[in-house]
Amino acid sequence: MGISIWHWLIVLGVLAIVIVPAAHILRRTGFSPWLAILYVIPVVGWLFLWIFAYARWPKVDGEAEA
Q: How many domains does the chain have?
């Protein structure tokens, strides 16, 4: 009894539900969308969320180039 293809599809679907919106938010605030991968690592994702919430946002603060 191993993990079937359906289990892997569900896992990939859940990851997509988490990573895609996080990447979009990161891109809109001026950060690299690749940082969204950190959200799926439980403790690292929580810490990153706290750091991200209180960090300066380049596009919002006007520090990013147009």
A: 1
pTM of the model: 0.69
- Structural domain contains residue 66: no
Residue with tokens 């810490």: 47
Residues with Cβ within 8 Å of residue 20, at least 6 apart in sequence:
36
| Token pair of 57 as six digits | 């946002």
Which residue has 């895609």 as its token pair? Answer: 20
| Per-residue pLDDT tens over the stretch 7-55 | 999 989 988 998 999 899 888 888 889 989 888 888 998 898 898 888 8
Structure tokens at 15: 């990851």
